[in-house]
Amino acid sequence: MFIGRVVGQVWATRKMRDLEGTRLLVVQPLDDHDEPGNSKVAPVVCADPLGAHEGEAVLVAFGKAARVAMGGDGDFALEAAVVGIVDDIDAPNAPASWQASTHAGRTATQVAGAGMDSTGPGHAEEASS
To answer: Domains in the chain and their CATH numbers?
Structure first.
């Protein structure tokens, strides 16, 4: 699992049946870009059942954890999924990119309701669309 920032969205008119109706996001990991191996995994295309917005920080799971997060038995044609929308990060020694606004792209109402859970106001409607 990693923390990343939503940098875009992917549209695919032709895709596997189990991905129909699934929103796909492009997520850039929030980490030290100088570490070996980072360029091999970034950015990542993720399924998004939560309705994250561009600019928001998100938690991304890989492999079977991502497939199970999409609501099934883990047998989907995807490798990564957004499993949380980050409200805040308390990591004083983290790179500066982590400290950028985690709420970018969300309205004040959505941010105010974020303390409830990741499907709070603003996310439930989007997740179903």
So the answer is: 2-124 (2.40.50.220)
